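Final report, closing paragraph on structural work. Over the funding period we assembled a curated collection of sequence-structure pairs, and we close with a single example.
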Amino acid sequence: MSPTPLDGLVVVDLSTGIPGAYCTKLLADGGADVVKVEAPEGDPLRRWSASGATIEPGGDGALFSFLACSKKSVIGDPRSVLELLETADVMVWSPGPPVAGHPELSPQEIHGSHPHLVVTSITPFGLEGPWRDRAATEFTLQAWSGGIVGLGRGAPDRAPVFVGGQVGDWVSGAYAAAATMASRLRGPGELVDLSMLEAHILSLTYHPVTFHDMLDRPWQTTRRLNMPGVATAKDGLVALGCATAQQFFDFCAMVGHPEWIDEKNPFSIIQRATEVAPVIQEWIAGRTVAEIRELATAFRIPNSVVTDGANALSLDHFEQRRSFRPNPRDGFLQPAPPYRLEPARLRPPGPPPRLGEHTGGRRRTRREATPDPLSFSRLRVLDMTAFWAGPSCTHALSLLGAEVIHLESASRPDGTRLIAGVPPTVDRWWERSPIFSGLNTGKKSLTLDFGTERGRELLRRLIATCDVIVENYTPRVLDQLGLDYEAVRAIRPDAVMVRMPGFGLDGPWRDNAAFAFVIEDASGLTWLTGHPDQNPVEPYSIGDPNAGVHALGGLLLALEHRRRTGEGALVEAAMVDAALNVAAEQVIEYSAYGALLERAGNRGPAAAPQNLYPTADTDEFGGKDSWVAIAVATDGQWEALRDALGRPDWAMDPDLSTADGRRTHHDDIDERLTAWCRERGADEIVDRLWPAGVPVGKVLQPHRQAELEQLRFRGFFEEIDHPVNGPARYSTWPVRLSSDPARPAPLLGEHNHQLLTELGLTEAEIAALEADGIIGRAPTR
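Its predicted structure, as stored:
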């Protein structure tokens, strides 16, 4: 059996919480030897249950057991940690564990004293900058990111809702793992400084700063529920969605109302769907979930069951693909890894360690020789992706310096070119999409109609020159073209091929249409988002970028495998598998404890009080939709909040001094905080509470992200001049890694001549391809 990609890599884990634990779990899945350093009382996750299940003394919470599979546990002090680091390759650090707070074990100190180490730091705002020491929770980071109102989540007559399930923590861990692997491939000795706020921005908002800079308007000015979205059928909840004008036209035909179709104004679909919502809901209410899904699938309209922690385990697709597998020690069901590799392999999960189980065990006496560094600048990537998930994966490679060739066709451009609401009467309207520009900076563009034999022949010639091929079509597309992994390997034996289908390369849902909202519905992410007295609300965001960062992680493992063996690999990175992993807690809690986690509006299991509170401000659109997020995660933070409020009598109740007491009286606390906040502006509230140590955040309009002083300090946004759209600010990556200055996103077909000339085509041949419509520089339909 071949070794795992990270075989022999030693990781010292000085983190606590979900982000560090998930980061090191992904590294352990790749074969790394992860040594978790704990205090004598153990990591707090060992005593955690989102449902409040009782953890017996000496036992471990189920979430900890999932995240700690294959790891080792040692009880350590600063001296023993420094000894471990002498023979380690990577250190993962977050604030919180007692030993991590020792001055000699700060990321900066370790980076300076152990130059052979990749040191990965995971903090709310980054290691430096004016906010570096500010209190934060996942909930308040969602507020600062603009993600709570970023895609209009929630009905306008209620408070907006955050994305439930602590998703920001999970995705921060995924970014940390990918950044660690990328750094390791580049060579040893780098400080990887990850900002969770920046990870939230990339995962919960859709390039809003670029959108505002380019089009001089925000994505939207009011909140609304997605239509059709999650609706009540005759026998339960069903989710339907229309991501394109054509899908809405097909939906109109399906429900028997073709008169709703306005092909002259396809950008009106959101407004039109909202206007006819009552008719849509009546149509859905008269049919069963199975009937609706069968019809929708026939019309190729994205649809899904609304999955939760209980029904996920019985869905036929997940059963057939073995998406959930027993924990190797405790037996409850947990998600399988978020990607599959062949012939490279992942490590089968080993049992999680008991506290201190490996203290005093044998340690590696010397570090293994490190393979030669990978120069991303010499890596050629064929990017056969569209929309958000696939391009976000390849965008990271572009930011790392790879040559990324974004493949489109003039007859079918990348869909993100078409969703900016720029009318076709505008000159070169297809070049004016902020979404396309934000996801594709630094790439090259080749248009090629591979529906033709000549196009397929050129595509095969191009593949022969590429180290990596990434695609996110439904599986049948490449299968029909005869370009599956076996065919690619015959052309380029050492190629790494990443396939990103929505639901996987096999299983009953294999060919179902998949967009972010459908993946969220199918994985449980939707179930935990929304007010408890209403249907759940689709996040409409996390499904795509979460898939992208996980696909990147699998790709980097495959590149490590190729660096060590010279052998290519297939990475199957199904979007739903990535989503099931970040929604893991739902299935784990139900399987381990029989507890069904439920949505709770803006409350959450990790803090009390936690909620959004209205302020006295009028928002920038003239409405009363201004909010602050407050989340009290510790007794000390409650005392700080109480003092900042002036120690009012109600807050001095002894029952409120514990988390259980505050949770019991949450309604009363919310009423008091609502009254206090209503009399003050958001800035005043933040200025009063944050310096006192209370996690608080303004519910930011997402196009205001670039105004945050912490993001300006870290240079998260980079201004790039575009030949059609002029200068605009673009988001980068949530870690500070050295890279070349970014280049603008490519014009459609901008590099046709260059790339085809490199393949050996003559001027006459290139002209003939353009005349025949096989290549082009403008949409043909």
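Residues 229-306 form a domain with the formyl-coa transferase, domain 3 fold (CATH 3.30.1540.10). Residues 543-565 form the longest helix (23 residues). We thank the funder for supporting this effort.
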